[in-house]
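hi! just following up on the protien thing from before. the input was this:
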Amino acid sequence: MATNETTPAPASNNDAAAAARAATPPPAPPAPPANEVDKLFDETLTELKKRIQGKAVNAGTLMSTLRVAMEMVEATRLKGADQKELAKKLVRQVVVDAPITDAKEKLLLDMIDQDILSHTIDLVVAASRGELDINAVQEVAKVCCFPFVSKLSKKFT
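and the predicted 3d structure came back as:
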């Protein structure tokens, strides 16, 4: 009696290799290198602390610390908003790491959180581009910044 059964053909070597690859999960991709911005932050923070070493960290020196941070960030390959964020982050970390009282730290962090650094950076950038009417800025500074900084300096110096 004849049957119509067929026996499967033996698998070829290519089929066996493909089956083995399918059964084995692919190796995990290598961990990405440390975030470049984080590495840049760490390196720049170390240099910033060297440059301001010996200077008190207080409301009166916050802007000079920002100035140094901005100069250092300008030398990086970051541009625009990334530069601004890195400069603010650097100054914030200097404040957090400084050997100052909790009250002074809170005050300085509040200034940073109220965007004083951000607005100062915007002002400096506008001035560097020639987009600044100095007379208007003087009036704003007289009304806004000088009484605030003067009061804080007296309170914490």
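Residues 36-156 form one domain.
The chain is about 65% helix and 0% strand.
cheers
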